[in-house]
Sequence to fold (107 residues):
Amino acid sequence: LKFKRRTSKMMSTVLINRVNSLIRQELFSTTIQTNAMKETLNQATSFILSNLEGSVAHLSKQKQKLKAIERKLNKELSSITSFIENGANHEMGNNTNTEEAKTVHQG
Fold:
């Protein structure tokens, strides 16, 4: 009976040690996988952030260029508007002078 208990206890200890060993191996393997995934995630995040920073810088430059074009176009529009307004005023003045000239000539 003592022999059976001792054998049973030894078998339990062996099984417990084996289970503990398997758990440790699995934890170690999981830790390695987790660390590898973290590293991959960090690299991907860095890559994405650097691309975003580049894109933001590019968009900022494009925005500045567009602002410059907008200012140029506004100046052009202003000068065209002035030209048209001055031309219209000049034409109206010419028409008035022409009418006066006809009246004077006819009179």
